[in-house]
Amino acid sequence: MAAPRLVVVSNRVAPIQEGEPTAGGLAAGVLDALRQKGGLWFGWSGDISDAPEAKAERTVGPISLFTIDLSRRDYDDYYRGFANGALWPVLHYQIGLGRFEWPEFAGYRRVNETFARSLAPLVGPHDLIWAHDYHLLCFAEAARAQGLSNRLGLFLHTPFPAPGVLMTIPAHADLIRAMCAYDLLGFQTETDRTAFADYVLRCAGGVAHPDGVLDAFGRRVKTGVYPIGVHVDDVRAQAETPANRRQATRMRANLMERLILSVDRLDYSKGLRQRFAAFERFLADYPAHHGLATFMQIAPPSRADIETYQVIRRELEAEAGHINGRFAEVDWVPLRYLNRSFPRNVLMPLYAEAQACLVTPLRDGMNLVAKEYAAAQDPAEPGVLILSEFAGAARELDAALLVNPYDEAGMARAMDQALSMPVEERRERHAAMLAVMRRNSLERWRDRFEADLRTGPA
Ligand code: ADP
Ligand code: G6P
Known about the structure:
Largest sheet: 10 strands, mixed
Shape: globular
Bound molecules: adenosine-5'-diphosphate, 6-O-phosphono-alpha-D-glucopyranose
Strand content: 15-25%
Distance between the termini: 21 Å
Radius of gyration: 22 Å
């Protein structure tokens, strides 16, 4: 019998072109899975329109793309409201930033139902349906209501919080019940998986079986850990291409001798405010780096119509001005703050040029920038990764300099240590990180999830 077709569902469908390099994060993982075996990718077009359920169809190589628009009301309730206004902050332990409204939660369910209703006619009886991320926690329940009996899996790219944190969302019980309608739930780390299982066992009367299998709400669901990876060799190849490298070296020539780099979406979960404060502390406590070290923060605006994102943007602009005002000299600007995104053929060689990369989220599901930075390094002369212990990546990349993002002095010390680290120690740490990343590759992530989805929670 032919292998079952893969059907991917995610909030956003990446704007892909055949032959083009892939985008990062969720998009890279999904594309990789689909490019290998072909299949269908379904999601929101990114557009808001009056004909919200209009479907657009496109084929790129072996992949069929189907997208639907959202109405203004759906966008406000589902995307701006519950998914990004309530769920995202709580999943990242930022309880104080969450803002819950029942009508928005109803809108979230409504859009999950719309997705299921629009997808149902496109699905064959043996297709494997793989949903992605926090936008679609209620999708399997909606798909079952549409009569779909296919194998349904969800991979959560974000963290999953401890029960006490999750329960600050008044609709927590509805969410967990809906998640149990999946056959397979994939998490980035064991901490996330255990937090989910804890809730099911302690708060929902569930029963645990071997191999992460749980019984709850009259259903059986398998839970597993699938840390998402990067294509190590592709990243390094992009970082090394002579044309790309020349451009990065030119950029670096303007940036003094010691470059500390950070690359993030402009999101409060990334710990940017604490990082700026730590850099200020570094400049104050380690004056030997004055005139030599530059910190470059690349942070394109994200979800810019949500107030919490507007607040963090304003705060960072003020803080960047304050730091440069306090320390800059006529021939040295310590902090460069760039609010834009760069193509990967610029970003990867820039990683390779940076002596240190600061990846200090307050919480992160995985953080692929950390893995990309490590993969981009020249093994003979590698830079140093400074990594938050609260990023999922820290479970695998424990050879990085691990820091607590709430510890300004500790982060300042790590910056000094990174810029002064002997090459033998840098090579040793880098080799250890590379070995883990080769083992936990993107292919392995995809193949293990797909295999478990095919087998189901028997
Ligand atoms: P998140 O998924 O929360 O944004 P990750 O670190 O897991 O965080 O993934 C971010 C992805 O987006 C990475 O692949 C990274 O290369 C890419 N990215 C982040 N910022 C930029 C930028 N300014 N320009 C280009 N790509 C970026
Ligand atoms: C994170 C989420 C993704 C999301 C991306 C960009 O990576 O895990 O699901 O697509 O951020 O956010 P946006 O709201 O612009 O889709």
